[in-house]
Amino acid sequence: MIGTGVFVSLGYQLDGVQSGFGIMMLWLIGGIIALCGALAYGELASAMPRSGGEYHYLSQIFHPLLGFLSGWVSVTVGFAAPVALAAMALSDYVAKVYPGVNSQLIACTVVILMTLVHSFTLKRSAVFQDVTTILKIALIAFFIIAGFFIVNSQHLSVMPVVSSVKAQSWTAIFSTSFAISLNYIYLAYSGWNASAYVANDIENPKVNIPKSLLYGTLIVTVLYVLINYVFMNSAPVDELKKSGDGVAYVSAVHIFGANGGNIMAILIAVTLVSTVSSMVFIGPRVAQVMGEDLSQIGFLAKKNAHGVPVIATVVQSAITIILVLTSKFQDVLLYIGFTLNLMTFLTVLGLFVMRIKGKIKSDSYKTIGYPVTPFIFLLLSAWTLYFTMSDKPNQSLLGLATIVAGSVIYFIRKPR
């Protein structure tokens, strides 16, 4: 989960939400949304333990068409776009220290290297991912601790303004800007459902997938809230806002000085390798499962001698490189935020359908707080979808166009 969004999205959020209270509420609400979604996915994964995520769930709950569309989104942009964003962010942080480097070349090189890492054995992939994730969490923990001991604090207040405008602090939470900013939060928290995509590669998935979804989301929520407090408290809002996707670098310069900021920028770039790696590893499992079910793309299901879907991995990385070379960071971010939010909304809605039809087995994990927690997820997701379509119609329509294109392909292919 910990990746691109937490290091880059604050600068964009500050365009519409500029109070410490509003920003902290953004990250807290984002964590609540992810947690409620993770609880629901835990039950679905326990009841239907097969790799594929939304593709598998929506096919079983509603109709193969809906599952195909979800898988189509995942195969085309659902994973390739976040990989592209992470690679672009990584190269941007390197460029802050070495301004003359070719950012696109760095981003494409990282993608290619991670494709090679995950094209051989599952054990090698797992070891690499574990090591890089531990390093990433250690860096964030260090950043947070250092931030709390900063001398030149901005004295950030995370409480509503105590004055006649107190009501406005709460009203801002229900504004269009706040809803749009949640798309950046979705990027940061993306990955809360990742275990569901690789169920076939997890021991005892009925137990371990719900655990990983729950504990992982809780830990990341705490880290995200704390590190964004540090970002806001260590540097002036105007500097953070102007930095765009470089908020962590600006904060690091204020905490550690110019040289220390450069060192932290390189370390952040190194930790983003883990983000690229995780999506390069997980995404092809969706394409693999689709290839097992659909004859037209059966080549994506082919594995090497160690059970790794090499062709699907290469195809996803090729799409990623195209996005790196042709797209703008913010447009890609909003586009995938809308599209993926729509698919997770339908998946959590499917939990209610499964319960009503009595298709959840008695030995399956049960969603904590049902029906309140999945309803909170649906309510907040629908709210964000509505405001995104209203305020960012181009990106929203592009997402819908992707789904329509998938529908056309579905009806001209022959299912197995």
Alpha plus pi helix count:
17
Q: Kindly identify the CATH topology.
A: Amino acid/polyamine transporter I
Beta strand count: 0
The domain count comes to 1
Under CATH, the homologous superfamily reads Amino acid/polyamine transporter I
Shape type: globular
Helix and strand string, N-terminal first? HHHHHHHHHHHHHHHHH
Q: What is the architecture at the second tier of CATH?
A: Up-down Bundle
Q: Which percent range describes the beta-strand content?
A: under 5%
| Cα distance spanning the termini | 34 Å
Could you tell me the mean pLDDT?
Answer: 83
Structural class label: mainly alpha
Uncertain regions: pLDDT < 50 for 5+ in a row? 163-167
Features of this protein?
single chain; 416 residues; mainly alpha; Amino acid/polyamine transporter I
